[in-house]
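Notes, p. 3: input format for complexes.
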Amino acid sequence: MFVTRLDWTSQAGGALHGSVRVPGDKSVSHRALMLGALADGTSHIRGFLEGEDTRATAAVLHQLGVRIETPADGERLVHGVGLHGLRGAGESLDCGNAGTGMRLLAGLLAGQAFDSTLVGDESLSKRPMRRVTEPLALMGAQIDTQDGLPPLRVRGRHALHGIRYTLPVASAQVKSALLLAGLYADGDTEVLEPHPTRDYTERMLAAFGWPIEFTPGYARLSGGHALRATDVDVPADFSSAAFFLVAASIVPGSKLRLPAVGLNPRRTGLLAALRLMGADIRIENERESGGEPVGDLVVTYAPLHGIELPEALVPDMIDEFPALFVAAAAAKGRTVVRGAAELRVKESDRIASMANGLRALGVTVEEAPDGASIEGGVIGGGTIDSHGDHRIAMSFAVAGLVAEGAVRIRDCANVATSFPGFLELANGCGFHLA
Ligand code: S3P
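Output follows (434 residues plus shikimate-3-phosphate):
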């Protein structure tokens, strides 16, 4: 059992060393479960993220009649029921904290012959859902929200038809919801993106044998085919590796190796941002695994300086801003982030959570509606609130490594949504986190 405490204290304690094997990718794990469930045959998933988010998706699929076995930790055998084999659950489907789970399932369930109700925890219940329900309605779906928020009541038995849709915000979740609904639609479903986002749904649909055309920023498929069971090797999650990339970059004398991390170019914006700040991060053993680029990351301490973050990097590092803010606070000079308004509708308002937390540690931060300016330099001790947001909690654990006093972080239980075992892995390479 992993130990999860509600409050953590993180303290400085010298250089970080060792090899840190971070858990499997959250985005890939969700999708592997969903496509495995709709496939004909049994799919074997290895490297599956044993997080609360992905387990919630597995539990929902189980409620919908899919048998999923756990032969070992980090493995799942998904016995697919075929495209039309799901059956309605008599009760609500609980997505927990997972926006990815809820939004993708909304698309998947829109084309079924039964009604469903998707619910989530307190944080998920405040997250905007019209971004998926409106385009799904254009396809013929009927999904009721509570003023745009969960629960989502998905009415089945509505014939879906393909649409050509340009995403108003860069969102892989919205794109994926439309593509999953498109499996059940008459005609072509086409999605165009202003900024390309992670393409795991597209890649995985192709791997499961569904005809799909995609290039960065564009995807098109038609309904009426079948999914073939496929084994999936899930790479380590770059977003989990991110905390260690920042940690070793800011603690003098550190060197960490992070093996077999997924390096899909739509995920590695933080790597580029840290390098612009002066970080020393090398990629070794670059290879392909399960159709995804994977490599070992070797990060060595190097003094960082502030930057004006190029806006083009924002979608490729959308989950990494809390970690970047800590790198910025530890760097020399000012870092400016703009074009990142999406951060306000993540598991918490991440601009506000980070700005308030850093200010509590004595850092000067100016908030903007779509970003912030952070004056790097000295980080002090103090108490911060994670707002139940896993990435805020882990980011302040990293800040504690270079803080002048202890950093107390409230409400860390949700770290288990994406990174079970963080505390143990972190302490194993030199954190002082309790
Ligand atoms: C995800 C897409 C991103 C990201 C989330 C996972 C996915 O969300 O923040 O953690 O798996 O598709 P948006 O689509 O809302 O940007």
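The CA atoms of residues 364 and 375 lie 5 Å apart.
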